[in-house]
Automatic annotation (TrEMBL):
It is a single-pass membrane protein; Single-pass type II membrane protein. It holds the Pfam family ExbD. Signal peptide: none annotated. Its main location: membrane. Keywords: Cell membrane, Membrane, Protein transport, Transmembrane, Transmembrane helix, Transport. This is Biopolymer transporter.
Length: 184
């Protein structure tokens, strides 16, 4: 233990020594050092190695860039439909069709849209070969205010165009489009 001389009081020369307990001070110092060491290890281990090391053998072969496939974007407007073929971000073609419907009770049909979709598929499709099992992609863009029966009529027009695909069990007629909805 360490001692501290506090001096004398008044004129008397009385020596008073007070002892300070050094153990808590040493404990605090050791905890601080341990904390700093552990933090230094965490900082060192948390770094990410930024070099481009790819597992496997290094291949000098050039990377072949595959162009994205064409995708049909069907936009339902208030007075017309827009058929836009895109390849990546590039617009390949765009066609507008007026919205003329045939209504039979509750059912709505768009025969002009179905005919134009078939013509557009014949002109721009990626997968026409009967041995090709993939379907062309169509994305439906619509407003939230569009009535559901109109959306169903557009889906019917999209699925009206069919093609024959050769499968193991024999030939089968399938729709040409795989349909998805756009989300905003």
């Amino acid at each position: 233990m360490g001692g501290v001389d506090v001096g004398s009081e008044g004129g008397k020369k009385k020596a008073t020594n007070a002892e300070i307990n050094m153990v808590p001070f040493i404990d605090l110092l050791m905890c601080t050092i341990a904390f700093l060491l552990i933090t230094a290890v965490w900082v060192t281990n948390s770094r990410i190695n930024a070099d481009a090391q790819v597992p496997g053998p290094a291949s000098p072969d050039p990377i072949t860039v595959v162009a994205p496939e064409k995708v049909l974007n069907v936009h339902i407007g208030e007075s017309d439909f827009a058929l836009v073929w895109k390849q990546g971000a590039t617009v390949v073609s765009e066609v507008r069709i007026p919205k003329t419907s045939q209504e039979a009770g509750e059912l709505v049909k768009y025969p002009d849209l179905a005919k134009k979709l078939e013509a557009e598929w014949q002109a721009n499709a990626n997968h026409r070969d009967p041995s090709d099992k993939k379907l062309d992609q169509a994305i439906l863009h619509t407003d939230n205010r569009t009535p559901f029966r109109e959306v169903v009529a557009v889906l019917d027009a999209l699925y009206a165009t069919k093609r024959t695909v050769k499968l193991e069990g024999g030939d089968k007629e399938l729709p040409v489009f795989n349909m998805t909805f756009a989300a905003r």
